[in-house]
TrEMBL record:
The keyword DNA-binding does not apply. Belongs to the ABC transporter superfamily. This is Oligopeptide/dipeptide ABC transporter ATP-binding protein. Residues 16-258 form the ABC transporter domain. Keywords: ATP-binding, Nucleotide-binding, Transport. InterPro entries: AAA+_ATPase, ABC_transp_ATP-bind, ABC_transporter-like_ATP-bd, ABC_transporter-like_CS, Oligopep_ABC_C, P-loop_NTPase. It comes from Streptomyces cremeus. Pfam families: ABC_tran, oligo_HPY. It comes from the Bacteria. The lineage of its organism: Bacteria, Bacillati, Actinomycetota, Actinomycetes, Kitasatosporales. One of its GO terms (molecular function) is ATP binding. Gene3D superfamilies: P-loop containing nucleotide triphosphate hydrolases.
Amino acid sequence: MTTAETPAPGAPLLASRGLHVTFPGRRGAPAARAVDGVDLELAPGEIVALVGESGCGKTTLARALLGLVRPTGGEVRFGGRALDHRARGLKAYRKRVQLVLQDPSGSLNPRHTVYDAVAEGLRIHRHPGDERAAVAEALSRAGLRPPERFFLRYPHELSGGQRQRVVIAGALVLGPELIVADEPVASLDASVRGEILALLLGLRDELGLSALVVTHDLGLAWNIADRVAVMYLGRIVETGPVEDVLTRPQHPYTQALLSVLPEAGGEPVVLGGEPPDPSRIPSGCRFHARCQVLASGQADAAGVADRCRTQELAVLPADAEAPQVACHWAAARREDR
């Protein structure tokens, strides 16, 4: 894979096809199917929010897309070509796809200055050209101006928002086409979150940068994403344009996630049953044991309760323009209209 490779017009920049990541169980325990069949696409210049509660597999999926975890099935494609998991291929790939972690304090070495933290990627990849100018440009793009003022500072001398901007500058310094941001504002004060989200949107507008934003917060998705993919127990269960999914959610799980937002109004949906366990995926719809629609009798009334408990749903297609949902009840409701 070389930096000359670009997707054909209209083709996705990044795509997964039938992606599986399975971790062996300990001492004879069942294997954990952390990612259990995922088709996902990101177009050039697009921001996609990958949403779900803790344990749903979204971080493992992101790590597989980054090449940090090798899939046990399916493939990742970038620029139309399958990801090369050999060391040389991954090194070339990581110049084009960068990770932004949620905790800047944990991802910055406290012994390194801001300059060294941002320059690290240039040195690893033996990037030609003026290192000082590249670091200054990256810091400036990340909103730390004048950049020279920050060169010799250490992480403990910065605010939380400034540290996150340094992490973003470190991702930008190699000129990537895509960033994967794992809970990019979760550790920040509310007053700073909007600034970081505005920065990510500005980078998309200025540089054509694509982003996969991993979050449990549907409110964040509303503010930043073009499309949303809702994940539960290793699968995408609902996906589509952000306005469609968040104003007209079809899957009961998405409805439950939205119900706890302050602006939602009404009573929050309290999910029963056990939290998702990737080593014990149930038959039928993987959400059925916790589903408020099944528990309330609405699935029985729609004639799909048995299907919910016994009939597995297909993997959602990644290339569909219209909203998609993996739910027997939602499908029955569409048929009745």
